[in-house]
Amino acid sequence: MSEPTKTDKILTGIPEFDMVLRGGLPRARLHLLEGAPGTGKTTIALQFLLKGLRDGKRGLYVTLSETETELRASAKSHGWSLDGIGIFELVPLEAQLDRQQSVLYPSEVELGETMRLITERIEAEKPDLVVIDSLSELRLLAQDQLRYRRQILALKQFLQGRQCTTLALDDLTSQTGSMELHSLMHGVVSLEQIERSYGAARRRLRIAKMRGSEYQSGWHDFAITPGNVLIFPSLIADEHKAEFEPTSVSSSLSGLDELMGGGLTRGTTTMLVGPSGVGKSSIALQYVAAAVRRGEHAAYFSFDESFETLSLRSTALGIDIEEAVRKGELGWQRANPSRLSPGQFVWQVRRQVEDQKARVVVIDSLNSYLSTMPEEKALILQMHELLTYLNNQGVVTILILAQQGIVGDIQNPVDLSFMSDTVVLLRFFEAAGQVRKAISVVKKRTGVHELAIREFRLFPDGMQIGPQLLEFQGVLTGVPSYDGSADPLLRGRSETG
User: Fold this and answer.
1) CA angle 167, 173, 174 (to 5 degrees)
2) pLDDT tens string 39-67
3) Where is the KaiC domain (predicted)?
4) Is residue 490 part of a domain?
C-alpha cells in the first residue's frame, strides 16, 4: 500500500482538537497519547473511535488496564454506546470467574505472546482505527527496556503495513520509558492535570511531536463534561484580522463623549480604573446599552456580579439589559474564576465575537480574571494576546480594573495600563460634606481627548457628567482643596443620559 500524504488525516471527533492538529491525526500512523491517570486519555480515545464509527470506519479498542464492563460503563457515563466498536480484553480474571471465555493474566504471559494475541486480533477484525490501552502494561511485561522497544517497533511496522491509524495510551508510570517512546512515534500528545489550591483542576494538552504535519504548538486548556471533550485552542491574534473602519463609538451621553474626545475608537481597548463602587461598571453598561440601541451585538463577561444584581442596577440607570439578553442582543456570561481556565475564558470571548458578531466587549473585572491562575506573568501575556485579537477584529473592548482603597491612598493591584489605548480614571473625593465622584481621561492613543477633571454622578434615571472642576486642586488625591469663590459642583441634570 502507498504511504499517506501529508494532508491525509483522520478527524478525532473533537473539532477544536482537529483545529490544533491542523485538520486531524495523520492517517496510518502510530500516535502516543500520554498523561497521568485521570487526565482524560480514555475519553479522548473513545471520542476518536466513535467519530470513526460515524464515518464508516472499523474501530478496535485493545484494553490491558480495565475490563470491557468498566470501559462500557465509562462510555455510558457520557451517554455513549460502544456498539459497533470491537473491544479486545486482556485483563486479569479477578471478579470474573463466572465468565466462560478465556481471559489472560498479563502478569503471567510473556510479552511476545501478548503481542501475538494483539496482532492476531487486528488481522482478524481488519480495523481502520486502533486504540491500545495501555503501553505501561506492556512495559511491565517486558521487564527489559531493549526488548520492550523492539516489540513496540515491530508493532508499529505491523500496524503501518495494515494502514491502521493507532492511538497508544501511556500513563507515564515510567518517565524514562515514556521519553524513549517518543522517538518511535509519529505523533505525541501530552495531557496534564494541574490541581489548584482552590477550585476545579485545570486540564491542558500540547502536541509534543507530529512528524510530517503542521500543528499549533504550545499548551491548550481543555475540559471534560458529560458527553464532550472541550478543547480551547490557544489564541494566535495575528491569525485573526478583519477589515474595519476605525470610527468613533458614542456612549449616547454627550458629556461622556466630549470627555473622550468624541467617543471610543473601534479596534481599541479602554480601561476604566478606580476604587470599588465609583461607577466603572455603570459607564461600561452605558456603552453596552448604546451599542444595543445601534443594533450591534454586545458581550458582557462578569467575574464579580450575578446577572440579577447587574440587572437591578442597570434598570435603576434606565438600562434594561434583561430585555437585551432575552432578545439575544447582549451576550451575558458569568465567569467563575474558581471553575474557569484562562483558555476557556478566551474561547468564550471568541465565540461571542466570531459567532455572534459582538462589536462591544466588556470584561468586569481584570482583578478576578487575574485570580484564575497563579502564574500572573503567563496570564498577562494571554490577556495581551486576547486584546490584540479583539483590536484586530474592530471590537471596542472595555476593561474594568478595581483599585485598592477608597479615598486618599489608592493603589493598583497590577499595572496593566500598557495594554490599553485609553485609560479613564475615576475617583471618590470629599467636598461640601459629601463624598463625590470625579472622572478624567488620562490617556488616549487614537486622538485628542479632554484633559479636564469632571464630576460624575449616578441618578435613578441615568448618569450625568458635570462641568470641569476648575476651582479644586488635588481632586484625584481624594481630599482636594477648594480655591474658588463659588460652588462649582454639579447641580442640574442637563447631561443626563
Assistant:
1) 95
2) 999 999 999 999 999 999 999 999 998 89
3) 8-245, 247-479
4) no
CA 414 vs CA 242, 313, 450, 462: distances in Å: 31, 27, 26, 31
Cβ neighbours around 7 below 10 Å, total: 12
Q: 272 φ, ψ to 5°? A: -100, 115
- Residue 289 and residue 484: Cα distance in Å, rounded? 38
Q: Residues 156, 294: one domain?
A: no
Among residues 211, 234, 257, which one ends one of the domains? 234
Same domain, 381 and 345: yes
Rounded to whole angstroms, the Cα distance separating 143 from 146 reads 9
Q: Cα separation of 71 and 322, whole Å? A: 45
Domain assignment of residue 464, yes or no: yes
Burial profile 293-320: b = 16 or more Cβ within 10 angstroms, e = fewer:
eeebbbbbbbbbbeeeebbebbeebebe
Q: Are residues 111 and 252 in the same domain?
A: no
Number of folded domains that form the chain: 2
Q: Which domain holds residue 472?
A: 239-482
User: Are 280 and 139 part of one and the same domain?
Assistant: no
Model confidence over 465-497: pLDDT tens digits? 988 888 778 887 766 777 765 555 555 444 444
Q: Where does residue 366 fall: left (phi above 0), alpha (psi -120 to 50 degrees), or beta otherwise?
A: alpha
Residue with cell 491525526: 25
